[in-house]
Amino acid sequence: VTEPDLRGRHVVVSAGGTREPLDPVRFLGNRSSGKQGYALARTAAARGARVTLVAANTGLPDPAGVDVVPVGTAVQLREAVVKAAADADAVVMAAAVADFRPAVYAAGKIKKKDGQEPEPIVLVRNPDILAEISADRARPGQVVVGFAAETDDVLANGRTKLARKGCDLLVVNEVGERKTFGAEENEAVVLGADGSETPVPHGPKEALADTVWDLVAERLR
Ligand code: C5P
User: Fold this and answer.
1) Does 158 sit in the ligand 1 pocket, CB within 6 Å?
2) Could you say which of 32, 171, 183, 186 is the most buried, measured as most Cβ atoms within 10 Å of its Cβ?
């Protein structure tokens, strides 16, 4: 797609995976590479949008012509997304956000002590950013898109999640040990709150990104 159908629009994309620190050198993280989010940012820019990319621990080069806001944790990602969403036409949450974080952050490196069992790690809930921005739209008509990685009952779980999160579109893909994470290609179904179902065949992450922007642009018109 070369048509500048997102010209004059501001879109926010989150990408990558949050890291929740236990101490200065350790964290709880996930395998998200950030590639899908970066593909979304690149394709939106190519379609004329002003793009804010909130990037969590991706290590990927900044896409040209995109505003990149680097973050580490879910709480930092929330702050950056909520701030950027204030004047956004669309928000796409492609980042893998940790549902929980360690309850305690040890200011010094946690040490093993001879003859002593390790301390259990206690977790607390992180804010659900997608649910929050869906519930409190920063402007009327703002389109909110979520991603869901499911391992089984992909469509049924996707529908339930779409309703629970309150977003307009949910990109559902099946993940497994060798699927999706870090790969160059993706395969998904995009579920709409209006009941629509758009299958996206196995292909480059750019193709899925363009389908997402097609559906967003339709809803912005
Ligand atoms: O509930 P689940 O983690 O499967 O939902 C995935 C979607 O929700 C993604 O779009 C992700 O960016 C978003 N999410 C979020 N805040 C969380 C957890 C997930 O915004 N704490």
Assistant:
1) no
2) 171
Q: Which residue segment(s) compose the domain that 160 sits in?
A: 10-109+121-220
Query: What pTM did the predictor assign?
Result: 0.95
Bridge partners, residue 196, by sequence: none
> How many separate domains does the chain show?
1
Is residue 74 lining ligand 1, measured as CB closer than 6 Å? yes
The answer to whether 57 is a known catalytic residue is: no
CATH number for the domain spanning 164: value is 3.40.50.10300
Q: Report pLDDT digits (tens) over 55-82.
A: 999 999 999 999 999 999 999 999 999 9
Q: Helices 35-46 and 205-220 sit at what angle, rounded to 10 degrees?
A: 50
Looking at the DSSP bridge assignments, the partners of residue 125 are: 100
Q: Decide if 90 contacts 12 (C-beta within 8 A).
A: yes
Q: What is the pLDDT of residues 123-182, one digit of tens each?
A: 999 999 999 999 999 999 999 999 998 888 999 999 999 999 999 999 998 876 555 566
